[in-house]
Amino acid sequence: MSYSPSSPMLCYSPRVTIVGAGRVGSTLAQRIAEKNLADVVLLDIIPGMPQGLALDLMEARGIETHNRKIIGTNDYADTFGSEIVVIAAGINCKPGMSRDDLLYVNAGIVVEATLKAIARSPDAIFIIVTNPLDVMTYLARHATSLPSVDPSGLVARHRIMGMAGVLDSARFQNFIALEFGVSPVDVNAMVLGSHGNLMVPLPRYSTINGIPITELMDAATIERLVERTRHGGAEIVKLMQTGGAFFAPASATCLMIEAILRNESRLLPVSAYLQGEYGLENICLGVPCRLGCGGIDTVLELNLTDVEMAALHTSAESVRESIERSLLLWSTVRDR
């Protein structure tokens, strides 16, 4: 008996590009493929590394029972036609580096990656993961507003966002579940503001099976969980000593990708460009947004108390200062 394959059918498969094949990027590629969300292009500047990671992931397809294609590359031409581009490239602060050094180095990486990726995928939605996250999200949006990149003005706030609030809320969710002894599935948590020590966890909007934690825990316990959430990333760095978190950041980013590709209209806290919401303008900051196939559909304005609003504005001011400093550093070096 002979086998004659039928004529191949042209079937559409969404494509997600991940720029940066480090621990977060490679774990995210695995998450996307094994959840059967999209084909993946894993890009990095190190020759051979993304190719090797992609081959390793491809060799697991039969075991994990999916047929997604994973491409490893050092060439942005291979990212053509991506629906979503994730920027996870960058460095962590090293000994002897100042905060300004980190800002400038990562700003250059994020801006270059965003411009090269959008030139190949002009309609893509961008998710920024590189730290300092809210600043990098703003710079990505700022760079893609250049007339030479998108003269039609299509690159608006709904297409460029940062992953932060999803991760911070997941950490708060986990700490609440551990403290109360319940499954995290029954916990919903909400964290706004910057992805840093000045983030704003909201106990009033954080619940266990619909019951606000303010009715289930005393103030001291809640404050302890809030502080642990604010320093959740640093706690992992201190424990690991040689790196930072990557499993949870990859899962948080994957959740956003799934909401967009499957048009789920999920209400998730993400770093979005604000145009008057919460009394803030011309800044990227973590706020609850509805995500669908177009990216950010809407920004939800919660009814915050005076204390909560003040904390959000304090968080925003810190981000704004870093944005202004990074733009100044960028322009100073460029004009030399």
From TrEMBL:
Every Lactate/malate dehydrogenase C-terminal domain range: 167-325
Keyword Transmembrane helix: no
Organism ancestry: Bacteria, Bacillati, Cyanobacteriota, Cyanophyceae, Nostocales
InterPro entries: L-lactate/malate_DH, Lactate/malate_DH_C, Lactate/malate_DH_N, Lactate_DH/Glyco_Ohase_4_C, Malate_DH_type3, NAD(P)-bd_dom_sf
NCBIfam families assigned to the protein according to its UniProt record, in alphabetical order: MalateDH_bact (TIGR01763), PRK06223.1 (NF004863)
Chain residues that bind NAD(+): 20-25, 44, 106, 129-131
Family: Belongs to the LDH/MDH superfamily. LDH family. Belongs to the LDH/MDH superfamily. MDH type 3 family.
Keywords: NAD, Oxidoreductase, Tricarboxylic acid cycle
E.C. numbers: 1.1.1.37
Domain Lactate/malate dehydrogenase N-terminal: 15-147
Catalysis performed (reactions): (S)-malate + NAD(+) = oxaloacetate + NADH + H(+)
Pfam families tied to this protein: Ldh_1_C, Ldh_1_N
Binding site for substrate: 99, 131, 171
Record HAMAP family: Malate_dehydrog_3
GO molecular function: L-malate dehydrogenase (NAD+) activity
Active site residues of this protein: 195
Protein name: Malate dehydrogenase
Enzyme class: oxidoreductase
Task of the protein: Catalyzes the reversible oxidation of malate to oxaloacetate.
